[in-house]
Design a protein that fits this description.
With 358 residues, the protein is of the alpha/beta class. It has three domains: 64 residues, Serine Threonine Protein Phosphatase 5, Tetratricopeptide repeat (Alpha Horseshoe); 76 residues; 149 residues, Glycogen Phosphorylase B (Rossmann fold, 3-Layer(aba) Sandwich). The strands form two sheets. It has a six-stranded parallel sheet, sandwiched between helices. Strands 3-2-1-4 form a four-stranded parallel sheet. Helix 2 runs antiparallel to helix 3. The radius of gyration is 22 Å and the shape is globular.
């Protein structure tokens, strides 16, 4: 008779930590990750779990201690490019190897970086290049996607998501001055004609995390409001979701107006409000200092923390959160009520100066 296998306490505690993290029971998750490590489970995985918990809790200092512990153990990590040395008088290469939203969020650190470095070169996807040249502190932008692919000589490199740790950023020291992507003036976009507030909407995130996307049908009450003018900024295949809406949903599709990220920035600059799920557009609107309402899934990314209706990263952002996984109806209802109140207090859009764009 085969004996029953004895559960591995380290693995069991780690699994409990991951489950608690998913439920956003963060202190219980931290405790489980510590118990897992004491039981012999992979220490870097336990530290990474605690890192997420501490960032969600806004305890950045404790998160950086976990990062330091991982680094000291010396296991190779392709996302760690920084050598840990000061940036003073060095030519620094900032590499944007993560998502577009990550690059837009953390490019704000280039300005304080430039106070120490003799030069800052940014390597990014080609789509980002026209935007990043408009960020204070950026001396040069290059890409690995064809020409210009050869950057100037550099002494030190860092992946862009490492910059908050390099500066040991806390909630109180986040560089939160917006806008930090600066656009020039141009003539008003001819696609907007009446005096109702203009609201641009994005309902689907990237395919790699479907939990971030809201079914477009949930937004029907918003699309039926008559005191706002709604524009679809949704890109990708999900733009076709508009075809399933009832006939009384007045949504104007302007996705063809912005074929690149600079075009998207031009478009965003001309709206009174951006309503979006967790996408690159949320970061771009925040970086441009546009009012942006973010509709978040329950187990949202660490950067949005928990229990907050605002974001220390973007002063113009308001957050609407799922109370439980899958409950987009609650979010849509709150947003619809907030829009009615926003229109009541805002009234018709003002005759603002020429829109900011490039």
């Amino acid at each position: 008779m085969q004996p029953f296998p004895v559960p591995d306490p380290g693995q069991s505690n780690y699994a409990c930590g991951c489950a608690a993290l998913q439920k956003r029971d963060l202190l219980a998750a931290v405790d489980s990750f510590y118990r897992a490590e004491r039981s012999g489970f992979e220490p870097d995985l336990c530290a990474a779990g605690r890192w997420q918990c501490y960032m969600l809790l806004g305890r950045f200092e404790q998160a950086w201690r976990e990062s330091a512990a991982i680094e000291q153990r010396g296991k190779p990590d392709p996302h760690r490019l920084w050598d840990g040395k000061p940036f003073s008088d060095r030519r620094v290469m900032v590499r944007c190897l993560h998502g577009l939203g990550d690059a837009i969020q953390f490019i704000r650190f280039v300005s304080p970086l430039r106070q120490y470095a003799s030069k800052v070169i940014v390597e990014s996807p080609r789509r980002l290049m026209p935007l990043l040249t408009r960020v204070p502190g950026v001396d040069e932008v290059c890409t690995w996607e064809g020409l210009p692919s050869a950057p100037s000589d550099w002494d030190q490199q860092i992946e862009i998501v490492e910059l908050p740790r390099a500066f040991r950023t806390t909630l109180d020291t986040i560089p939160a001055s917006v806008p930090y992507i600066h656009l020039e003036r141009l003539t008003q976009w001819s696609g907007i004609s009446d005096e109702r507030p203009r609201v641009g909407v994005v309902w689907a995130s990237g395919g790699w995390d479907r939990s971030r996307s809201i079914p477009v049908s949930e937004l029907t009450p918003i699309f039926q409001l008559r005191d706002i003018r709604v524009y679809a900024l949704q890109g990708g295949a999900e733009a076709a979701d508009l075809n399933v809406l009832p006939a009384n949903c007045m949504v104007h599709d302007v996705t063809g107006e912005s074929e690149d990220l600079l075009g998207a920035a031009k478009l965003i600059a001309q709206f009174d409000l951006i309503l979006t799920v967790d996408t690159m557009i949320a970061h771009l609107a925040g970086a441009l200092a546009k009012p942006v309402w973010l509709m978040l899934n329950f187990a949202a990314d660490w950067r949005w923390m928990t229990g907050r209706s605002d974001s220390p990263w973007y002063p113009t952002m308001r957050i609407f959160r799922q109370p439980r996984p899958g409950r987009w109806d609650c979010v849509a209802g709150q947003v619809c009520s907030a829009l009615v109140e926003w229109v009541r207090t805002t009234g018709q859009r003002s005759n603002s100066p020429a829109m900011l764009s490039m």
